[in-house]
């Protein structure tokens, strides 16, 4: 039994993604009963954890900040696929993209950042990171969020919180341009800005906790990561209809579906960022959180803009007044958190309170 437990602990990340695909195929065209919904939820959770493990292997092999970029892009692919799928099959999908992307921004910038700050600062009074890299990421996500989700509320070309075709095209191009500039800065021009730093603020170029995996191991993890992501997208799609029914049955606003989608797809990021924070690598946590927010806007909005050509119904991207207030509050607090280059535990608590306010107002708008 002990040998089996050891074997399972070593190889579960290989078998769980495969099981996820098998379950996906088995239940794809079946009317789901409560037992099946519960089973799919368990397999989905296991597949997400396996995806995190494989993403960490790849990240360790390629090093920072490339590893954070790999996971951020992978998670955003899940988000885009899920949004497009639900917009083609679900009801009241005009605001689904906006609700999901805004939820992703609030979850990453408040939930993940706040939790990471608390975990990293528990060993010391403060945690240290590179203000130049994190500040560049914060500026990018602020510009993206304002151009794509705040402006539509105030433009006059079309009624309601909706861009005209020309405005949507500009917003999509601007998002891609901002994302491309950020990726170039993060990976080539100023890579040192995004490396973990020591308590004295000097970059840590190597992870001393373990040797980097071999190229063969990393390539296997890349393949299994792709399998896991496919399974996560499909299983989340299977769960989407029961989720929508549950949201309606409980009496929650339909916009809460976007919150649930964002929570599902950002679970790998949250786990990976928490692990990095516990190792006192707060910069990696910020790379994951802010990088995911940037990827969520910079990749999702252009993809949805293209998809809107054939998707039925309008595309409402403009935020409501309470959402704009929460976004602006998040930006202001994030500036105060990041610009000093170090943060105490109280900053993490402030971010988590804002995150709690976002969840509460999503339930009671």
TrEMBL record:
It is a multi-pass membrane protein. The chain crosses the membrane at residues 12-30, 36-54, 66-88, 100-121, 133-154, 166-184, 218-238, 250-267, 288-311, 317-339, 346-364. This is Ca2+:H+ antiporter. InterPro entries: Alkaline_pH_Ca-Antiporter (IPR052946), NaCa_Exmemb (IPR004837). Keywords: Membrane, Transmembrane, Transmembrane helix. GO terms for cellular component: plasma membrane. Residues 35-187, 221-363 form the Sodium/calcium exchanger membrane region domain. It comes from the Bacteria. It is found in: Membrane. Pfam families: Na_Ca_ex. GO terms for molecular function: potassium:proton antiporter activity; sodium:proton antiporter activity. The keyword Ribonucleoprotein does not apply.
């Amino acid at each position: 039994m002990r040998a089996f437990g050891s074997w399972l602990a070593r190889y579960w990340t290989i078998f769980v993604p495969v099981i996820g695909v098998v379950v996906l195929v088995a239940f794809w065209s079946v009317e789901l009963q409560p037992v099946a919904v519960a089973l799919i939820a368990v397999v989905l959770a296991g597949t997400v954890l396996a995806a995190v493990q494989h993403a960490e292997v790849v990240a360790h092999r390629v090093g920072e900040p490339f590893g954070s970029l790999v996971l951020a892009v992978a998670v955003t692919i899940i988000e885009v696929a899920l949004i497009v799928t639900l917009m083609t099959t679900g009801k009241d999908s005009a605001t689904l993209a906006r609700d999901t992307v805004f939820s992703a921004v609030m979850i990453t910038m408040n939930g993940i950042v706040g939790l990471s700050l608390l975990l990293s600062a528990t060993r010391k009074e403060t945690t240290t990171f590179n203000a130049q890299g994190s500040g560049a990421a914060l500026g990018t996500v602020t510009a993206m969020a304002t151009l794509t989700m705040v402006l539509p509320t105030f433009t006059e070309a079309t009624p309601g919180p909706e861009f005209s075709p020309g405005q949507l095209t500009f917003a999509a191009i601007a998002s891609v341009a901002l994302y491309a500039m950020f990726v170039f800065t993060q990976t080539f021009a100023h890579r040192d800005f995004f490396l973990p730093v020591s308590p004295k603020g000097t970059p840590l170029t190597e992870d001393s906790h373990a040797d980097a995996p071999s190229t063969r191991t990393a390539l296997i993890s890349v393949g299994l990561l792709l399998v896991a992501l496919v399974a996560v997208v499909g299983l989340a799609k299977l769960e989407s209809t029961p989720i929508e029914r549950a949201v309606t049955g409980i009496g929650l606003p339909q916009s809460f579906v976007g919150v649930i989608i964002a929570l599902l797809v950002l679970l790998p990021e949250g786990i990976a960022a928490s692990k990095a924070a516990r190792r006192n690598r707060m910069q990696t946590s910020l790379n994951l959180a802010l990088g995911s927010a940037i990827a969520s806007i910079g990749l999702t909005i252009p993809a949805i803009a293209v998809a809107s050509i054939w998707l039925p119904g309008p595309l409402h991207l403009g935020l409501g007044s309470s959402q704009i207030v929460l976004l602006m509050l998040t930006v202001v607090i994030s500036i105060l958190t990041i610009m000093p280059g170090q943060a105490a535990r109280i900053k993490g608590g402030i971010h988590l309170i804002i995150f709690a306010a976002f969840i509460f107002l999503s339930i009671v708008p």
